[in-house]
Structure formats: structure tokens, C-alpha cells
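Bumping my old thread because nobody answered last time. Still need a sequence for this structure:
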């Protein structure tokens, strides 16, 4: 009788250990699934955020370009563009001289206007 009780106790104990192991494994599985779902949602949210950011920047850029185009059409707008192109040309030409040891010089330095006219004609073509 005592052997029978010990046998049943051993069986009950092993069943308890077995069930505990199963419970731990099931918990680990559920944890992995939840972590994976959380990571998936995080990536989706980040991607949607980047997409919205790109869309907002593109919309703002388009609005800015439209405003510039409208301003160019106003009286004196073309002259303002020519002035701005000339300013940028001179600034970039100065930067070229600072950064490199090779300097590209236009054939006629006194005709910055011709360079601006060439850039303006490119703007008009586009």
C-alpha cells in the first residue's frame, strides 16, 4: 500500500513538473508572438511616419515652387531671378577657388552677365 502511494505521488509529481514545463513553454511562445507583433506594429508606424513626412515636404516644396513661379511672372520678377543667379554664381565661384587647387576660369571674367544670361536661358527652357 505504501509503495502504491509513493508510486502515485511520483506520478503526480512528474505530471506537475510536466504541466509546469508545458506552461512555461506556452508562456515563452506567447511572449515571442506578442514581441513580434509589437515589433511589426512599430515598423509599420515608423514607415507611415516617414511616408507622411515625405508627403509633407513634397507638398511644401511644390507650394514654394508655385510661389516662386508666380513671383517671377510679376513685374521685375525676371530681373530678381537674374540677380539671384548672379549672386549664387559669384558665391559658388568663390567657393571653388577656396576648396580646390584647380581653378576653372571663364574665358572672359568681365562678362558675368553672359553667364547669368546662359543660366537664365536654361531656366526659360525648363
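Sorry it took so long. Here it is:
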Amino acid at each position: 500500500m505504501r509503495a502504491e502511494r509513493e508510486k502515485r505521488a511520483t506520478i503526480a509529481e512528474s505530471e506537475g513538473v510536466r504541466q509546469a514545463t508545458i506552461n512555461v513553454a506556452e508562456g515563452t511562445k506567447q511572449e515571442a508572438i506578442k514581441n513580434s507583433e509589437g515589433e511589426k506594429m512599430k515598423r509599420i508606424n515608423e514607415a507611415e511616419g516617414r511616408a507622411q513626412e515625405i508627403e509633407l515636404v513634397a507638398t511644401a516644396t511644390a507650394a514654394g515652387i508655385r510661389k516662386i513661379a508666380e513671383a517671377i511672372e510679376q513685374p521685375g520678377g525676371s530681373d530678381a531671378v537674374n540677380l539671384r543667379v548672379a549672386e549664387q554664381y559669384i558665391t559658388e565661384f568663390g567657393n571653388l577657388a577656396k576648396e580646390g587647387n584647380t581653378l576653372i576660369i571663364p574665358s572672359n571674367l568681365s562678362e558675368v552677365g553672359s553667364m547669368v544670361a546662359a543660366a537664365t536661358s536654361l531656366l526659360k527652357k525648363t
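The two ends are 102 Å apart (CA to CA). Let me know if any region looks off to you.
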